From TrEMBL:
CDD domains: ABC_drug_resistance_like (cd03264). Residues 3-233 form the ABC transporter domain. This is ABC transporter ATP-binding protein. GO terms for molecular function: ATP binding; ATP hydrolysis activity. Keywords: ATP-binding, Nucleotide-binding, Transport. Pfam families: ABC_tran. PANTHER family: ABC TRANSPORTER, ATP-BINDING PROTEIN. Belongs to the ABC transporter superfamily. The keyword Transport applies.
Amino acid sequence: MLLSLKNVSKTYKNGVKALDNVSIDIHAGMFGLLGPNGAGKSSLMRTIATLQAPDGGSIHLDDLDILNNKIEFRKTLGYLPQEFGVYPKMSAHDLLHYFAQLKGISNSSERNAIVDKALEVTNLSDVRHKHVAGYSGGMKQRFGIAQLLLNDPKLIIVDEPTAGLDPAERHRFLNVLREIGTNHIVIFSTHIVDDVKELCTDMAILNGGKILAQNTPKNLVKALSGTIWKTTVTKDQLPTYEASYNIISSSFDEDSNLVIRVMNDTQPAPEFIPTDASLEDVYFTTLKQEQQIELNS
Ligand SMILES: Nc1ncnc2c1ncn2[C@@H]1O[C@H](COP(=O)(O)OP(=O)(O)OP(=O)(O)O)[C@@H](O)[C@H]1O
């Protein structure tokens, strides 16, 4: 299974270029689309979901030209938007049966099996008779997944599902995605680096509507190996270090020391010690390099 985008661009009427010549191949498994607010993630998701037309480019799911075969494509698509509707006071069980009927699954034993499976995969079997309207944020997100699993989609698109979830709910939700990611293409957008680190077999970093990097999280981290250094500084020293070194990030450690991380091919100064590269380093250096290219152009 392969989703292939070639030169996909989108400029909104207000002149914002949300997608700038995006070309990317996405295989079965969990694909993480990582980018800051306004990067173009939702625009890309909506475009792949055929909810908005790009100005140019093509998108194929295997041999199917999806932009010219929307109806056929949508039968194989499960899309969970960033914000989805308000639910009526109906139980998850009844609501899923209702949606399954709308999707044309009229045979009741077939429908029972499909609904039971969707509830099981999303870990909602125990709360199937509770009203969805009263569910927590995380349960609602999982219900959204249960709903899109009803028609056994090949491609699942989930737009920033972990935003606003507490750590336990986030963990539960990521586990559900991990389970369905084994036999579907799941594209999942987030601005949380840890989501991608924990979950994805392939990833891309998007900013300014452009794909800045694509690879497995492991390979991206490996590419930075040997170039990341850290040292502790005082708050007063920070501006001097900022002026002299390529600081990727700064944060406080468990002893409340301010630790800076720097990218450099060789040891920047004697006080720096080498440290393992992280996916966060990859994310920040990629965004920073892009910023520098923009400034120099
Ligand atoms: N319908 C629209 N009309 C005009 N501009 C838009 C529209 N939708 C998005 N934009 C702009 O396009 C750019 C990309 O937005 P998009 O929502 O795709 O980014 P995002 O990465 O999903 O961000 P967020 O995480 O904040 O949702 C932003 O500058 C946004 O303001």
